[in-house]
Each structure stands twice: as C-alpha cells, then as structure tokens.
Design goal:
Pfam families: 7tm_1. Belongs to the G-protein coupled receptor 1 family. With 347 residues, the chain is an all-alpha fold. The protein has one domain: Rhodopsin 7-helix transmembrane proteins (Rhopdopsin 7-helix transmembrane proteins, Up-down Bundle), CATH 1.20.1070. 71% of the residues lie in helices and 0% in strands. The chain contains eleven helices and no strands. It is globular. About 5% of the residues have low confidence.
Length: 347
C-alpha cells in the first residue's frame, strides 16, 4: 500500500481520517490546534536537545585527544545511539503521536519500529559494557589496561550494535512480535496507522532481552563497585599522611575512577527510571487483554526517549571536561590549530 496523502488535514468533516481515499482508515486525533501546537513545540524541544546535546558529546570525544580512553569510546558509541534516535526516530514518532496517523508507508513503518527497538536496546547494551569497564577500573585497577584494551572495546561496541539490530529487525520484519496476537492486530489495524503490538510471548521475550537481563546485570555490577569503592575509601582514610605522599598519584587516580563510576551509575539509574515503565507495560499489556490505552503507551515511549535527552545533561553536570569542551566548541576554538591537544583536565 502506498503512503496515504496529507489532504485529510483539509477535510472539514467532524471525524477526520488519516487516509480519506481508503475505506478502512485510521481516525485522526481530535485534539484542538492549540493542543497540537503545544505538543509539537514540546516534542521539538526534546528532539533538538537530544540531537544537539549528543552531537556535542560526539564532537568532544572525537576531537580532543585527551578524551580518547576506553570508557569514553563506549560513551561516544552510546551518544551516537542517542543521536540517531533523536535525528531519525523521534521526528516520525512526533507526527504519529500528535496526529495519530502514519504518513510514511508500511515499509518505513517497519524500518522505524525496528530502529526504535534497536536503538533503545543498544543503549542498555552499551550501559552494560560500561558497567563492566567501570568494574575493572575500580575493583581491579592494576590489571585494568590489560583487561580493557582496544580490541575488547571494539568487540563491546560491535556487540552493542549488531545484536540489537539483528534482534529488532528480525522480530519486526519476520512478524515475530505478532505470533499469537493476530486477532488483536487485525482488529486495530487500519490504513494510515503504524502500530507496534506484542503478543504475550514476544512481549516477555523483548522485555527480558532488551531490558530486564542487562538491567539486572548492571545493578549487580554497580552494587559490587559501590561496595569495593567504599572499602577502598576507608583504606585511603586510614593511611598515614607520610605514606599518603607516596601514594598520592594512585589515590587521585582512584578518586577519578570512582567519580566516573558514580556518574555512569547515575546515567544507568536515569535509563532504568525512564524505560522501566514502558517495558513493564509491554510485558503485562498482552496478559491484560490490551486494556492499557494507546495514548498512555505512547506517553511512556516518549518518557523513555527522554533518557537520550538527559544523558548529555548528566555529563555537563558531573564532568568538568565536558563543560570545558562545550565552551571551546561554542566559542569556535575547536577550529584552531592543535585545539585537539587542549588539556581539559589534569592528568
């Protein structure tokens, strides 16, 4: 089926359809123009903040040589995920959320749904690998560089992209999410719509693979990191001042790594808070006979999108290097010769 036209906006009837030329068409939202405009403004602000914020992270880590560390390369890859979500996925979701219509055709609906699942899953995969990186940095610092080298980081990044891509595109294009939910899909399906429906089995599998298993792993790892960091902090406080002078460099390194672990732990917490409601209802809605209103599900999706907006804000709040890099970028000094060698923090 070809994408439906936009001439439904001009139809003067009380109940406007997404595709006026099709008999079985989805019904366009009945919200007033003031509500529509407010929603568009709010969502455009989220999209712009997501794109600009994560693009700044990408430029900062890519440009400044001092930021070329294993952890930052993982952060760079995760910022790319968030950037793509804001640039490609969120604008189309905005139109669908406000108008309750899909004007881009069935094939692109599958592409959009696949990318949506892939990028949200890729985010939590990145966070899982970042938690592993922080575990070795804080709990086994002497062997950190041998354990987390360039090859290991490349493997982590590849897995974080390829596994979610295979899972998401395979599920959507093979209609695995509809196995066992054909009746409800045929009941709600209409021309000019793009619905993502999960059966009981696919809803549980998608939630477990994309959220609950990696989320549980991250919580366990960060709990171990917190416990070890607490013990090391007590040990440092117990060292005499004389001995402290000899171990000052090691202690500064430990404090920096512990702060990085704490910051990334906050990022993980933000992710869990933003996405846990959506994945909870995705798993339970099929068992409740799909009684949860689509408007609520759509709102939870945008609450999950908000995680991609908040990540750069967390960097700006906790990382001095990000604030300094942002200042250099905004002032245009990034185009100066040897600006990539600028020291953003003391070694």
């Amino acid at each position: 089926r070809e994408p439906c036209s936009l001439h439904g906006f001009e139809t003067p009837v009380r109940m406007q359809l997404c595709c006026e030329s099709v008999n079985v068409s989805c019904i366009r939202s009945s919200w007033s123009n003031s509500i529509r405009i407010s929603m568009y403004i709010f969502m455009v602000c989220i999209i712009l903040a997501t794109v600009v914020g994560n693009l700044t992270v990408i430029i900062s880590i890519s440009h400044f040589k001092q930021l070329h560390t294993p952890t930052n390369f993982l952060i760079l890859s995760m910022a790319t995920v968030d950037f793509l979500l804001g640039f490609f996925v969120m604008p189309c979701s905005m139109v669908r959320s406000v108008e309750h219509c899909w004007y881009f055709g069935d094939f692109f609906c599958k592409i959009h749904s696949s990318m949506d699942i892939m990028l949200s899953t890729a985010s939590i995969f990145h966070l899982s690998f970042i938690s592993i990186d922080r575990y070795y940095a804080v709990c086994d610092p002497l062997r950190y560089k041998s354990k987390i080298n360039t090859f290991v980081i490349v493997v982590m990044v590849c897995v974080s992209w390829m596994v979610p891509a295979a899972f998401a595109f395979g599920m959507i294009f093979l209609d695995l999410n509809l196995r066992g939910a054909e009746k409800i899909y045929n009941h709600v399906h209409c021309a000019g719509g793009c619905f993502l429906i999960f059966s009981e089995t696919s809803g549980i599998v998608a939630s477990i693979v994309s959220f609950y298993i990696p989320g549980f792993v991250m919580l366990c790892i960060y709990r171990k990191i917190y416990s070890v960091a607490k013990k090391q902090a007590r040990s440092i406080n117990a060292i005499s001042r004389k001995k402290m002078q000899f171990e000052m460099k090691h202690n500064i390194f430990f404090c920096r790594e512990r702060k990085a672990a704490k910051t990334l732990g906050i990022i993980m917490g933000v992710f869990l808070i933003c996405w846990s409601p959506f994945f909870f209802f995705t798993a339970t809605n099929p068992f409740l006979n799909y009684v949860i209103p689509p408007v609520l599900i759509d709102a939870l999706v945008w609450f999950g999108y908000l995680n991609s907006t908040l990540n750069p804000i967390v960097y700006a709040f906790f990382y001095m290097w990000f604030r300094r890099a942002l200042k250099i970028i905004l002032l245009g000094k990034v185009f100066q010769q040897d600006s990539s060698r600028t020291h953003l923090f003391s070694d």
